[in-house]
Amino acid sequence: MAIVDVIKYDGKPNVMAWKYPSQELGTWTQIIVNESQEVVFLKEGQILDILGPGRHTLSTENIPILSKLINLPFGGKSPFTAEVWYINKAFALDVKWGTAPAIQLEDPKYHVFIPVTAYGQFGIQVNDSKLFLTKLVGTLPSFDHDVMVKYFRGLFVSNVKNVISEYLIKKEISILEVNAYISEISSALEEKLKPQLEEYGIKLANFYVMSIEAPEEDSAVKKLKDALARKAEMNIVGYDYQSARSFDTLEAAAKNEGTGSGFVNAGIGLGMGLGLGGQFGNQMGNISSKMDTNIKEPINKIKCSNCGTDVDSTLKFCPECGNPLGNYCKKCGAKLIAGKKFCPECGAPQIITCPKCHAEISDNSKFCPECGENLGGVKHE
Questions:
Q1: Same-domain pairing of 140 and 186
Q2: Are 340 and 347 in contact, with CB atoms under 8 Å apart?
């Protein structure tokens, strides 16, 4: 293989480390290094030098250590083998990351496990070429953004899971509400990842979480969202879950065609539920407490002819003075109807007459108003 005279970068834009394909070099070979690049020069696994931007000739004057590794039998010029690595040190600000597959997290607010996916992007820069090449690149022919994300996927997923879980517990919020804290979560993740990437010679410029989502097609997510939608509907209408369950049970009991009344069956069904019978009783108690179940007939009042007190018309005697209220049958005690001559219950005659002239007299008369007959000895029946 011919000895290379000029070496220059021929890798792709997203490559962080690129190895020149030929190792056949000479002390006259020139290496061209672009701005924002460094070249790491290795021989037999040992780093000889790191070259910055510019044009460099591989000579013992520029790289003194070469004189110890190669002989100079051709008038100060000699071919030799070595590796040339180009390290791109420009910032890459659009490196994509994501958690695939989804990570399982327990929702601290509703206590159900929900799959969560998160994705975003970050910016990096190689700030230590020697450390980056020796600890991360190794013997790979090149190292680009995709390889780096693959290498650090476990690191990203682990930290994302821990930070999101901490925020859910700390803020006592649902996974469905976590996007409100996405900026804080991004900052927390950046602080955690920075020192870990620096161990490999990589500087983390920024770390953004673009979205944290729960897959819509997941059954647990569907059930949770349906429950939240129903809760929001009940809040708008103005009743809670216990009320809704009580009314649902009453409706089901009303449709029950089995033995026993609907309310009895409803009570049995609720009693067999998770303590819902007691809740049903409390709910119905609250409802009944707001209802006036004492239905009373209107009371007719009359005035006592003796003391003038307003008393119930159904009473026979005044509760204040004991005066008889109205006329009653002397035989059976039934109340008489005004203008009627006989008792409506037993038929006994109710008109009192004078035993002498047969004139009609009142019940408490002592003498007949017509003939003056003494009525003191008359037994009024």
A1: yes
A2: no
